[in-house]
C-alpha cells in the first residue's frame, strides 16, 4: 500500500476523541510513509487528518468538486489538489488513486462513500482493504446492521469480511496491510454456482 483514502466528517463532531483519532491516524500514515487521499477540505475531521499528515511532512492529496469549494472550504496547503466537476468524479478518482480506504466518524456523505466502496468490493470492482475507525464505538451500530443483514440473508457470510473495524489506527493499518480479500462468492442466493 502506498496511498490510503480517508473518508471523514466535514464537521468535527462533539466528542474530542474524534479529533484526537483523526490526528493520530494522520501521524500513523506519515510514520508508514503512506500518502493521504481525501476530499480536499480543511474543515472538520477531514481537515484534522490532512493537517496532521502535512505537519508530519507527509503527502496529502485532495479531490473536490468545484461546487463544494465554498461550503467545505478547500484546503490551500495540500501537496496536490484535484478539481473535479461532480461527486461521482471525486469518488472515482479517490478509488483510482488509493490502495485502501478508511472511514473516520462522519455523516451521510461518509456513510455513502464507505458503503459504495464496500459494494464495489462485493461485486469485484476492486479488492482493496476497507476499514472503519471505530472511535468510542461510533461504528458499532453500523457493524451490528451489517451482521443483521447477513443473518437476514442479504449479505453472504464471507462478504461480511469486506469491512475491517478497529478502534486503534495502528492496529487497523496493520490489518489492512495484511488483508486478503474474501474468496469471491456468488452474491445472489437464488442463482446456483456452475
From TrEMBL:
The keyword Hydrolase applies. This is Cytokinin riboside 5'-monophosphate phosphoribohydrolase. Keywords: Cytokinin biosynthesis, Hydrolase. GO terms for biological process: cytokinin biosynthetic process. GO terms for molecular function: hydrolase activity, hydrolyzing N-glycosyl compounds. Gene3D superfamilies: 3.40.50.450. Pfam families: Lysine_decarbox. One of its GO terms (cellular component) is cytosol. Its EC number is 3.2.2.n1. It comes from the Bacteria. It is an enzyme of class 3 (hydrolase). NCBIfam families: Rossman fold protein, TIGR00730 family. PANTHER family: LOG FAMILY PROTEIN YJL055W. Belongs to the LOG family.
Amino acid at each position: 500500500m502506498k496511498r490510503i483514502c480517508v473518508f471523514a466528517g466535514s464537521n468535527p463532531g462533539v466528542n474530542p476523541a474524534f479529533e484526537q483519532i483523526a490526528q493520530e491516524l494522520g501521524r500513523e500514515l506519515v510514520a508508514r510513509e503512506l500518502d493521504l487521499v481525501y476530499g480536499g477540505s480543511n474543515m472538520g475531521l477531514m481537515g484534522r487528518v490532512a493537517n496532521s499528515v502535512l505537519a508530519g511532512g507527509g503527502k496529502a492529496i485532495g479531490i473536490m468538486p468545484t461546487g463544494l469549494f465554498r461550503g467545505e472550504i478547500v484546503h490551500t496547503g495540500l501537496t496536490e489538489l484535484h478539481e473535479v466537476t461532480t461527486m461521482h468524479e471525486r469518488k472515482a478518482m479517490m478509488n483510482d488513486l488509493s490502495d485502501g480506504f478508511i472511514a473516520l466518524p462522519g455523516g451521510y456523505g461518509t456513510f455513502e462513500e464507505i458503503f459504495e466502496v464496500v459494494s464495489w468490493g462485493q461485486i469485484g470492482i476492486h479488492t482493496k482493504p476497507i476499514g472503519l475507525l471505530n472511535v468510542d464505538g461510533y461504528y458499532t451500530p453500523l457493524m451490528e446492521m451489517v451482521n443483521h443483514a447477513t443473518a437476514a440473508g442479504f449479505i453472504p457470510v464471507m462478504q461480511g469480511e469486506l469491512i475491517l473495524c478497529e478502534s486503534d489506527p495502528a492496529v487497523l493499518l496493520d490489518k489492512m496491510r495484511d488483508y486478503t480479500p474474501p474468496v469471491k462468492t456468488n452474491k445472489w442466493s437464488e442463482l446456483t454456482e456452475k
